[in-house]
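// run 5 | inverse folding | seed 20
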């Protein structure tokens, strides 16, 4: 087993830069998800780790050793691709045994009839057979070891591809959207299987996905990427609760975070929808900021001190156990979404709702460039006040 260390990895195709100076340390045994929108460079980074693509600058270390000069099969990494990349003319067993026969038999021994005469080949093949069988049992695919990939379901093919990676006993598993070809129900099932497999094997996994739910539910840490850069690295809770930028905040969480335009008033307080929030943003007075509020932090009934936002009801999406309520903000086309559990939903919820409530402590503040700013100097648990009312500084007596 081994950790991974990427130092200043850059890559471009032609004149187009795709990855810019990526630094990333992945701990031994960690499950790290690389997430980000389509085209942000996830697969390219994974292929560089696998040795299938060569970086333009920077170095890669596996288990503390630089591997830049090593070819893919010398790196002790195994990759599972989105399309599984199984050989259609080979059985499940043959597909899984292939990486081992390639590694352990010489060219002559691999010729079917010539090699059969070699006692060494018979011994090696017996060992390979036992190894492959052990992995098929672990993945519960032993009953269809003699079938061809075309005779398998999507989920079964996915497990074979995983098995082919496992037989090599890699130090690092690299997975590129391995579940994206499966239907929604099977994806949920395989998520659990993969997470359990990771726990059992204790192996380092780098898992590429653009599905934030997969990343949030399976990974120890997420690296959120955009346009060839890592915007934030952290546990799912850190990334969700303290998104480093608007892009991260929008990417993680479903439905997406609400964004409300605001500004910094003369006293340095964030002013939103006529309220001065007990948040002093470290940006120049007068500068525009954006407030992010998660849909589940939006309340239908205000608590004391909440900011109250006038809204117009648009529609309700009933998801069974909960509903997503869509509202529009005044004088703008912008929407604000609110998720509510259906058993807490008043009968008149929706059309009759003219205001929504938010606590200042639930407001994320982003500067003009879209980066999170940490408010200073005031107690974020204090109530929001209409603009013009003086707020109590943090630590001051009530
Ligand atoms: N071989 C290549 N030649 C030229 N451009 C490439 C090549 N491979 C990838 N790119 C470009 O590099 C960028 C990053 O591609 P990459 O496949 O890494 O994205 P991704 O994050 O995996 O996206 P997706 O989620 O759609 O799989 C894209 O703009 C893509 O068009
Ligand atoms: Mg990709």
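// decoded
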């Amino acid at each position: 087993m081994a950790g991974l260390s990427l130092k200043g990895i850059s890559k471009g195709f032609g004149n187009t830069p795709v990855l810019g100076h990526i630094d990333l340390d992945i701990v031994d045994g960690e499950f790290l998800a690389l997430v980000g929108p389509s085209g942000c460079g996830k697969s390219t980074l994974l292929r560089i780790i696998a040795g299938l693509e060569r970086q333009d600058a920077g170095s890669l270390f596996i288990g503390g050793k630089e591997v830049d000069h090593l070819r893919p099969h010398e790196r002790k990494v195994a990759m599972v691709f989105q399309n599984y990349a199984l050989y259609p003319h080979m059985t499940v067993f043959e597909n899984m045994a292939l990486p081992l026969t390639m590694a352990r038999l010489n060219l002559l021994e691999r010729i079917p009839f010539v090699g059969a005469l070699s006692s060494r080949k018979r011994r090696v093949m017996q060992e390979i057979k036992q190894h492959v069988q052990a992995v098929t049992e672990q993945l519960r695919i032993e009953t269809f070891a003699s079938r061809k990939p075309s005779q398998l379901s999507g989920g079964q093919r996915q497990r074979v591809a995983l098995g082919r990676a496992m037989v090599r006993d890699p130090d690092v598993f690299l997975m590129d959207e391995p579940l994206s070809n499966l239907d929604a129900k099977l994806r949920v099932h395989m998520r659990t299987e993969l997470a359990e497999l990771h726990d059992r094997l204790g192996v380092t996994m780098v898992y590429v996905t653009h599905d934030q739910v997969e990343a949030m539910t399976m990974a120890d840490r997420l690296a959120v990427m955009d346009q060839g850069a890592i915007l934030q690295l952290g546990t799912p809770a850190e990334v969700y609760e303290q998104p480093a930028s608007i892009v991260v905040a929008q990417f993680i969480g479903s439905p997406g975070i609400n964004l409300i335009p605001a500004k910094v008033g003369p006293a340095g307080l964030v002013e939103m929808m006529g309220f001065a929030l007990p948040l002093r943003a470290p940006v120049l007075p007068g500068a525009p900021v954006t407030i992010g509020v998660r849909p589940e932090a939006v309340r239908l009934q205000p608590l004391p001190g909440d900011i109250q936002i006038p809204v117009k009801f648009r529609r309700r999406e009933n998801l069974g156990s909960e509903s997503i309520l869509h509202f529009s903000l005044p004088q703008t086309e912008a929407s604000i979404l609110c998720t509510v559990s259906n058993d807490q939903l008043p009968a008149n919820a929706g059309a009759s709702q003219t205001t929504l409530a938010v606590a200042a402590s639930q407001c994320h503040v982003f500067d003009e460039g879209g980066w999170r700013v940490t408010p200073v100097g005031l107690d974020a648990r204090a109530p929001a006040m209409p603009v013009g009312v003086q707020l109590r500084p943090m630590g001051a007596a009530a």
